[in-house]
């Protein structure tokens, strides 16, 4: 059995003639206009949050350290979210990606700290193991046909066990100072880890939005049967998506090891909710109802500003978790509402044009 596509659009139950009268038509058009404006609401909300927290916390929030910290802290989450976008684009989920990040970080740290492996070799081994996780997920989902949610949930549990076994459930570190500079070195005042994230953003944006590979990936996610009939090798695209996601997770794991310098055995799960929240909240931005890189970046920035403001305001950790969870639910609800209204509006417009033609 295969996983259902995580598409956010639904079929409207409106009648084919789009009945409902002029009043309903005006309402639909008004809502459609609001939805069109909502494509850029994330940027406006970011600006509003910055102003709000700057007034609320004038001594701590509107500082260079705050925004440099946001850039550095969220870069790893962004890299993981970019990887998740690839599997989401083909209509699948990878719940093991966050734990793959945690395992990769731990393996990289253990190799350097406990086995005196050079950083270059440790990174190479870590990336290869991360890729192997993607191959395993690809076999379970694309070849055997297990639902991606079930398969990757099982894989995540296995990776958690491996992480614990490798580390003996202890913190590992510190890693060599030279390796820490890989993510913490500043270029023009910007942490290098943020620059790596920007490079990967541009790469993901170009591949997903401007190449045949990206267009076919979205086609597979939207309608795998039609894509198969059109000659697209859907199994290959689904399998490849899990490999790419795992590679991004491993890269994120390596960078978080470099950035923090110490690795906790429970590191991975902390990245699961924020990365998925950014992906789904991103579907309400720029290209509504569709996973996209630009929307994900805006969504993550919005979440990061909100979380940072709450932290500086002295709120407890559970408040930030509540913020991320509520944002995810709101994003999915908004995308579903948008998906229901657009088909209904299109039907109504066709009915209006047909009625005008008959009257003429």
Descriptive terms for the model:
2 domains; 360 residues; single chain; mainly alpha; two-stranded antiparallel ribbon
Overview of the molecule:
This protein is an all-alpha fold. Helix content is 74%, strand content 1%. The protein has a two-stranded antiparallel sheet with strand order 1-2. Strand 1 and strand 2 form a beta hairpin. Helix 12 crosses helix 13. It starts with 20 loop residues before the first helix and ends with a helix.
Short characterization:
Helices cover 74% and strands 1% of the residues. With 360 residues, it is mainly alpha-helical.
Helix content: over 70%
Mean pLDDT: 86
Beta-strand percent range: under 5%
Secondary structure tally: strands:
2
Number of domains: 2
What is the oligomeric state here? single chain
| Widest sheet: strand ordering | 1-2
Which segments are poorly predicted (pLDDT under 50) over 5 or more consecutive residues? Answer: 1-5, 9-19
Radius of gyration, CA atoms, in whole angstroms: 22 Å
From the helix content, strand content and strand pairing, which structural class follows?
mainly alpha
Shape: globular
Separate helix tally? 14
